[in-house]
Amino acid sequence: MTTRSGNGAIALTAAAALAPWLLVPAVGAAAVAPAASTVQMAPDTASAQVLAPGVHQVAISDQAGYFAVERTIPGSTLWVGETVVTANPGNGDLLLAAVKENLDDCGWSSPGVVDDLISDHEFRTGVVNSGDCTDEDVVYIRNEPGSGSNFSGETLQVAVWEEPPVADAGLLPPASAQVRWDGDRREDKGRITLGSDFASAPDLSNGSWQVRLYPGRTALAKVPLEWGQHLQATLSHPGYEDGVGFSGKEPFDVEPRLITPLGGEGNWAEAKPSRSGSKPPINHALYVSDYPRSSGAVSPVIQWKNRTDPTLNPAAFPGTYYVSLRIDADVELPEVMNGAVDVTLDIGVFGEPATGSPYAKTPADLPDFKAAAAESAGDADADDASDPSEPAWGVVGGLGAIAVGMTAAGGALLVRWRRLTGRAR
Q: Are strands 230-237 and 220-225 parallel, antiparallel or unpaired?
């Protein structure tokens, strides 16, 4: 179900798995945060610290908290992605919104591809952008735990990116809402371990793999996409020959989620039959039971206008996308599975990369989760060597996406958008 709040807020809720990363410290408005330090949210916009483009580690506040992102290019779009791998899979929402200094909402919110229920999972992620705040030099990101949520002591992985304006939006292709299905299966490439966070996710651009999944745990594959390209993901499970593998247990879903290069969910496109007549699977989620099943989903073609009406999809710029596979943490697996679920994941990349760039100037590189994780690990090793009494910062798992940047804390999370109407602010 696709939901969108009237106030532009986005909820990070439990879901697929993404995990540990330490964030590079942010540049503050008043001071520069030390390397490998954790940024503290401010209680109001007046004292909010500015985060420079890149990856940051931000402590989650018990109440509404703020940090800021700064516009340096006239007409640019500021994106922030947030990810967290929570130690409490049953935790409630973390509400995210981009606002002005006076708390007026910036208006843009990305719809999610999730239902209205909080599902148990460690991986949470969300993404927002500056929306209607086109003239502000500084945009503020508000984070507020929802009713019943407790993220005390946990950390966000925040990714911040400033996207330059396009030269002429009128000349660009329309938003991509429907994509043709490809009925072929890719080459079998054996077994592979999916990533517990963005940094460790393997590149599964073209092929078919056997992967192992665990309820509530993060499982990520990365798939680089250029302008004009899209991905297709197919899941399958063979069932059990005797038809009694699930005796006494309920069947369950394995749900694929499309995650943007900054974290946060993008929307799957509507799959249309191929030109040869191959029909797409009815469902995105794989229903695992005694019987053979398959499912599949296609991303939109990566186009700049995907962010605009009617799709409002953050899958609107090229970069490394992720497929997150999630099983709710409260699923009870049948004994025959021995505590894990083995499925086949088939991923294909389609479309010729478009030549040239739509931007008026060359954009900065997207935040690099893998480099940030390596830098954090190096800082932790250095700190541990210089003072053994000090605890080392490990790679903190979690990727919550707010289209500007995001941080994660140990574990895997799935960022979910839910209807926020009726929530007190």
A: unpaired
Q: CA 81, CA 407: separation in Å to the nearest integer?
A: 8
Distance CA 38, CA 378 (A): 16
Residue 317 covered by a domain: yes
Identify the domain containing residue 305 by its residue range: 178-350
- Let me know if residue 190 belongs to a domain: yes
Contacts of 175 (CB under 8 A, 6+ apart): 300, 303, 305, 306, 307, 308, 310, 311, 313
Partners of residue 49 on adjacent β-strands: none
C-alpha torsion 352→266→178→183, nearest 10: 70
> What is the number of structural domains in the chain?
1
Residue type at 410? G
Question: Is residue 260 exposed (0-12), middle (13-18) or buried (19+ Cβ within 10 Å)?
Answer: buried
Residue 48 tokens, joined: 């909010």
> 220-225 and 207-213: which strand pairing?
unpaired
Tell me the pLDDT of the chain (425 aa) as tens digits: 333 344 455 666 443 333 333 333 333 343 444 434 799 999 999 999 999 999 999 999 889 999 999 999 999 999 999 999 888 888 888 888 999 999 999 986 543 322 234 558 899 999 999 999 999 999 999 998 887 788 889 999 999 999 999 999 999 999 999 999 999 999 999 999 999 999 999 999 999 999 999 999 999 999 999 999 999 999 999 998 776 678 778 999 999 999 999 999 999 999 999 988 889 999 999 999 999 999 999 999 999 999 998 888 999 999 999 999 999 999 999 988 999 999 999 999 999 999 889 999 999 999 999 999 888 777 655 555 444 333 332 333 333 443 433 333 333 332 333 222 233 33
Report the distance separating Cα 263 and Cα 81, nearest Å: 5
H or E stretch covering 147 = none
Structural domain includes residue 393: no
Peptide bond into 310 cis (omega under 30): yes
This prediction's pTM: 0.82
Which amino acid, one-letter code, is at 65? G
Residue labelled with tokens 């839910």: 418
Specify the DSSP class assigned to residue 404.
Answer: T
Count the neighbouring beta carbons within 10 Å of the beta carbon of residue 269.
24
Structure-token pair, residue 328: 């709710």
Q: What are phi and psi of 171, to 5 degrees?
A: -90, -5
Q: Nearest CA to 110 among 2, 262, 13? A: 2
Does residue 362 fall inside a structural domain? no
Q: In CATH, what number is assigned to the domain containing residue 217?
A: 2.60.120.380
Residue type, 171: L
